[in-house]
Sequence to fold (383 residues):
Amino acid sequence: MTEKLYYRDSHLFSFEGEVLECCETKRGFELRLAATAFFPEGGGQSADTGTIGGVRVLDVHERGGEIWHLAERALAPGLYPCAVDAEQRLRRMQNHSGEHVFSGIAHRLYGVENVGFHMAADCMTIDFDKDLGWEELSAVEQEANLVVRANVPVRAFFPGAEELAALQYRSKKELEGAVRIVEIAGVDRCACCAPHVSATGEIGLIKLLTAERHRGGVRLTLVCGMDALDDYRRKQQSATAISGLLSARRDEITPAVERLLESESARKERLSALSMGYARLLAEGFAPSEGNICVFDELLSDAAARELVNLLSEKCAVAALFLGSDETGWHYIIGSRSVDLRAAARAINAAVSGRGGGRSEMIQGSASAPADTIRAWFEQTHF
Fold:
């Protein structure tokens, strides 16, 4: 079985590795080493990447106690300098250890169980089996960061069968064989196969981003350490840009946005009223007709467009309104008080190169025929 150097030292990023075997597979070339510091995928954490003898390692997985490294090209058996992507590993350790701190505190304070964990490229998600409110989660976040500040030791070990039987620890599933325990003194004890920091001070900031109800519990999004710093930088850049656009200080963005939304709401109401008045003026300009009325427009709002069609339907057989242009295409609303438009929809769509349907009194859809073709058809057609 491959010796797992990452269990001996989670901060071992460079080592001399002995390639024992190289196999070509459908995925590429897989290398088996006598001992490795590359962590394979497991426990919700993705596999390490890096290089072996200068050859890029793309993935790592464990099979039957042996760890195989997916490499870009083949390597002959022998000794090679190996390098784990240290920045990637350190960030993952910060996040994973931060998750243990957060989950352990939530378990102690509120009795929740962590039933799901996934680490993405720039954040991680945790699923708790009970729904916690933001106030409770904020209390967990506060205490978690106090644990970081206290720089509590983190210990990973394989207890014997008797010791394990006497231990209380968190685990998402029943485990068989040797069980590795990660213990954060006074904070958490959990079964886990992944590399972790040596002390909580290495984690850095633990920041809760989102919380949403999920399968009777709550799904959280968290970031820790350097990922938390990156997240803060992105938000700081956004806040600075928004501050400039609104001509408001960064700590006054919220009231500035509220004022903008109020202004936008008032503007929309005003535009809606104007559009409705415009629709009524358009309708007044058409005399009653036994034929059809076809109108093209680019300004009417949706509500005003329906109002215009309803008003015109009182004056003619079929009232057809087309919104848009020849270049962008048309959205149509067609109404009638005397013609079954649901039955007529197929003929209308064929004539205007369109698609759509609806009720017998009104149909809606899209059309791509030019305005002249559409207008001519409605002028010539008798329903």
